[in-house]
Amino acid sequence: MSGLWLVARREIVTRGRTKGFVIGLVVSALLVGAFAFLPKVFDGPDSYTVGVVGSPAVQRELVEASAGSSRETKVTTRPFADEAAARKAVLDGDVDAAVVDEHRVLADGEVDRELGALLEGAHQTAQMQKQLTDARLDPATVARAIQVAPLEQVSVGADTRYAAARTGIATIVVIVLFFLIFQSAMFVAMGVVEEKGSRIVEILLTSIRPWQLLGGKVLGLGVLALVNLIVVMAVGLGTAAATGFTVDLPPGMTGIVLGTLFWFLLGYAFFSVLAAALSSLVSRQEEVSSVLTPLQMLIMVSYFAAFFTTMEPGTTLARVMSLIPPFSSMVMPVRTAGGEVPLWEIGLAAALMLAATAGMLAVGARIYERAVLRTGARVKLTEVVR
Amino acid sequence: MIEIDDLHKRYGDKTALTGVSFAVKPGEMFGFVGANGAGKTTTMRILMGVLSADSGQVRWNGAPLAFADRRRFGYMPEERGLYQKMKVAEQVEYFGRLNGLAPAAARQATADLLERLSLTERAGDEVGALSLGNQQRVQLAVALVHEPQALVLDEPFSGLDPIAVDALAEVLVERRRAGAPVLFSSHQLDLVERLCDAVGIISAGRMVASGTVAELRAKEGRGVLKVVVREAAPGWTAGLPGDLTTDGDEVRFTGVDGDGQEILRAATAAGRVEHFGWERPSLTEIFREAVA
Ligand SMILES: Nc1ncnc2c1ncn2[C@@H]1O[C@H](COP(=O)(O)OP(=O)(O)OP(=O)(O)O)[C@@H](O)[C@H]1O
Ligand SMILES: [Mg+2]
Among the CATH numbers 3.30.479.20, 3.40.50.970, 3.40.190.10, 3.30.360.10, which is that of A46-145? Predict the structure, then answer.
């Protein structure tokens, strides 16, 4: 067992400090961070500064509305002595708009749509209160009377409130899973060929068993990939939280995160052992890409199926692909992130993928064991399976 | 004791080994020699378990050589293999750990070995940045780091400068003194003759001779009788046994049966005998004879 850990540790230490890994980590984190930040950019600003000139009622309403709302949009007010000063501040861009004498709004061009609605709401409330009070109604009664609970939103169809957020998250999950599984499988393949081609295996395999060498490599590179995945998720969620996007995150985020980790581990185990088995057939790095063609096809098909699923999560094709291993390792997490999936389907997909991974471990380890010491010409698959 | 017993190996239609057998005793340095393609590497790979024989057995102290025992062997394959991107000391230490050394012991053994092989300055360099000969030294360090109970080295001296050859020889002698059987192949027969207690000669997949150098000499016959006679009458050698070559006053007899006393008598009668003696054949000569 200690052989396995030693191999794993070597992989982590030596691969973890290569440029390839570090660049991959940084790029994937930046991409996901940018992706999580994007809605913010398209969403427009979430805070406004409004100048006020002699409009105490509107000002009061704006402040109250801003403090009491669960909305992200914050409005701060800034008093000006006269209209000329307010006008100048609007033109200079110091304030987004200015309310003058309770009945005019100054803006540089048009008032931003969201801000306009906010100002209009504040203005309506303030004026209603004023007019009712002017009609000699008791101010306290007026205040109580105009307190209206907002409309409660009830969907009678599917709950689509989080559809956009879920699609976004599912898209990120596809890209990240594809990138990480592909990269890690390539690392495993390159490592196997490095050892076989340079004949280090001859020395290694007089000290440790083939399963220790293979297992240690898969484990070590898996740890690195997992670190990468966790960093990416932390950056993604962190950016979302920091930019205030979290309010819109769908419920069950923990489940989505854990599910992604689970499916990643299965997918990684399956594809990396397949990569190791295939690459153990050749002795030179130049031959790696040709021997890995079937693996690359499988990953690409999984990727496209998963991408298709982000757009059409409800189709039969998406459902079927999310059950068949190894495609399920990328399609199912995307389906669960993108919408509700019946529990039995998740269970079935997990059971099938677990079985496929176990089978791949058994067959892959066998191929590896038999092929890795046969240096020279490319070993035929038929010579080593049986 | 390592015993190789009746190994047979074919690669497709090509027969690489036919009944190869020999033994390397504890504390014995065994030189394994043979022409290119004779089967040395094949034998050693089978011994180390990286190749399987078609038939035959490798035994260690009487029992079939098991993985756990082999782990404590030091092995240097013919085709050198190291992680090019890994630092020298890190790499040697790693192999020490893989062979069961504790972290501190591996570090210590690595430092000692690098010192002996004059690699201390390069300890922090990537292996790929070293010259070929220095990479070879690292390869040796990898084979030796865990103080192996037996050594199997395929052409360990090739590519080394004389200083490194001496350093390596010293390490091997030390292992032998510790009681380990040491088996190495080499084409440098003078080195084998100087270092080895025993020699095995393989030719076309068959062992043609094995034993101590003295035994091989005895087997190859006494060899060449060299006689130098000054002021001898020409033709004094007429009628004497064996084939002879003449070079001035120096005459060499080969294929002489018996102890050559009649040649000595003839020489004494012919002139002033300055030299009369058997020339010890070098290993190279024995080798040529054996594989012929
Ligand atoms: N992988 C292989 N496939 C086919 N034939 C092989 C293979 N490896 C070795 N042989 C053949 O087996 C024979 C023995 O080769 P081996 O490498 O054991 O010789 P060697 O004594 O080590 O030679 P050298 O001194 O050149 O290293 C050779 O005829 C060689 O061609
Ligand atoms: Mg050889």
Answer: 3.40.190.10
Q: Cβ B81–A198 below 8 Å, yes or no? A: yes
Look at residue B247 in the predicted model and tell me its pLDDT. 85
Rg (alpha carbons) of chain B, rounded to whole number: 24
The predicted model gives B114-141 an average pLDDT of 91
Residue B176: which domain range? Answer: 2-217
Q: Ligand 2 centre from B281 Cα, in Å?
A: 26
- Report the atom number in ligand 1 closest to the C-alpha of B45: 18
Report the complex ipTM.
Answer: 0.82
In angstroms, rounded to a whole number, what is the distance separating the alpha carbons of residues A378 and A207?
Answer: 25
Q: Verify whether the Cβ–Cβ distance B81 to A373 is below 8 Å.
A: no
Instruction: Note the pLDDT tens digit of each residue in B216-245.
Output: 877 765 578 888 988 888 788 888 888 888
Q: pTM surpassing 0.80?
A: no
pLDDT of residue B115: 92
Rounded CA-CA distance B224/B197 in Å is: 23
Domain ranges (residues) in chain A: 2-40+162-385, 46-145
Same domain as B128, residue B266? no
Q: Which of B41, B43, B192 for a ligand 1 pocket mutation test, highest count of atoms within 8 Å of Cβ?
A: B41
